[in-house]
Every structure is written in C-alpha cells, then in structure tokens.
Amino acid sequence: MTSKPIRAIVVGGTGYTGAELVRLVLGHPSLELVSIVGNQTAGQAVGDVLPSLRGVVDGVVQTFDPDAIAEQADVAFCALPHAASAEAVSALRQRGQKVLDLSADFRFENLSVYEAWYGKHPVPERLPEAVYGLVELHREELRDAELVAVPGCYPTAATLALAPLVKNGLVQSEGITVDAKSGVSGAGRTVSSATSFSETAEGARAYKAGAHRHGPEIEQELSRLAGAPLNITFVPHLVPMTRGILATCYAQPASTSVTAESCAEAARALYAGSPSVHVLDEGQHPDTLWVRGSNRVHVGYAQDRNSGTIIAMSAIDNLVKGASGQAIQCLNVRFGLDEGAGLRAPAQWP
After folding, report:
1. Could you confirm whether 153 is annotated as catalytic?
2. Structural domain that includes position 226
C-alpha cells in the first residue's frame, strides 16, 4: 500500500531560492506540491512568473493565508526575506504548521547577535523552537524539529570544510580565515546594478570584507564544535557565474602531526553515510562545476609546503545545498525518509 504524499507549500516561491524549492519538490518521490505563495506576484499565472514551470505547474500564485496553508499542507517552506519571514513563520507556527525557514531569522541562538547584524527581531520568543538545519551536524535534533532554520549558503560551505578540523582539535582556533567566492544568484532575483550582467560578467570583487552577516553564523557553529568562543576572518567575493560557492579556508595546524591527509580522514569519519558530502582524495581540489545543480558538497584538504598552513576547501551549489536542497534534506530527516530522497541526481555537466 502506497503511503500518502507529504503535502508541501512554498511561501515566497517566485524568487531564485523559492523556484529551486519548487523544482525539487516536484521531483521528490514523497512530496506533493500544493501551491506556490507570493506577495507581489499573487494572482499571476505561475508560468508567467516562473517560465520554467510552463506546462508543468498550472494555476496562479497564491496570497499568503496562514489558515489555508495550515489546512492544506503538512509542511511549509518559507523563502521570504529576513524579518518578513519571521512574521510569516510565527503565524504558521501558531497554527501548528511544521516550517522550514530559509531566512536568517531563526538561525542564531543568541538574540543580540541576530539583532546586531539584522536589526530588531519581530518574534524573538520563537528562537528557542528552531533547530539549525545543517544536517551533517544536527541530524539527531532535526528528527523532532517543528521549526527548522535552514543555514546560509556561505556558512554551509565554510562550516562543512572546517567542522572536522575544529571538532577534532586538528587546527588552532585563532587566526582562521574564510575566503569564499559566490555566483550572482546568491544576491536573489531583485534587480540591482551591482549584480547586472554588465557589472559582473567581466570582473571579480570582494564585498563586505570582514563585515558580512554570514560571518557570525559560521562562528556560532564552529564555536559549538570547539566548545569555546571562536572568531574568524571572513571575506566573500562575487564572481561571474550564476551558481556556486567555493570556500577556501586557512587555519594553523594544532601540532606538527596534522597533515592534509589526517584532515581528510577526519572529514571522512564525520561525514560517513552522508548522501551529500564527498571528501576528495589528496591533490584534488573542489570545483563549483562538479556540483552545479546538485545537493553535493565536495570537500578537499591541502597543506602549504612552506608555512604548514592547512587549507580546507569546499564547493557547493548555493541554491541547492546552500539553500533549497538543504531544506529538502532537513525535511527528509524530519519525516523519517531516506535522507537523500529527491536529492541524489548528479551535478549538471558541463
């Protein structure tokens, strides 16, 4: 006897992250897409707002109605901007709805850290409900979660590269640097001169160096693994590609016995059984093309021959493992499904 599909609604489903969620829900063997919810596009045909769905999804974009969502769906994905997401999530939680939120509104354990980077929190009383949705580090907590805070894209890439090293005391906690490059889709679908083709196609640049709000999110997770406060230097870059994040992280070894291979062994142990994380062999370096369009993470390690510095690298698709695919992975764990369900497709090639 076939079990009933899990009914899912995507709130904020017309942006890049929301559209990717819709695509993944449609391809998931245990999910049924009930509707796509939007604000500015409500009432418009889905195929007009998201041309990739013409002939695939009929009907119109729905307005946000928490009562209707709670009645029609078993789970809601929320892909709204920060702060706006918090209020929508709270309305859904008041009605007992399970929610996977892709904004930053519930990622931080410490309210003061959130408010220092994002402003006043609309519903701070709900922060204790949330479970941070990096499955590889929070798998057990996610099994009973009613509110999942899906991580940011940069924190996913950087944390997965560094977690095995910090967790096992292989590197010093001081002086960790994260140098990360992202494709333009990470800025979202809103029109901006800074992310237009003319201004991104032929250049690469750092932005918000040392002042990007994903830095504290990385520090939160690494500090938890280290068992003590840990600070990093984080410099993001925008590069001329649509999708992908390449994170190159630098740390000093805790002892002379730490090598690139011992780091890779620690990563293989930590990520054993993960359907998403693949640790590369020594001498291989991650490439965003190898993971494009997939929920895969390629992690690799090297060591500088002169300084001894450990170089931890990872590549992800920022819209999949960095957002929507990660949300699906969290859902799989929460509902007792195969963790890789709907996510095992390899990367697009080339």
Report:
1. yes
2. 154-318
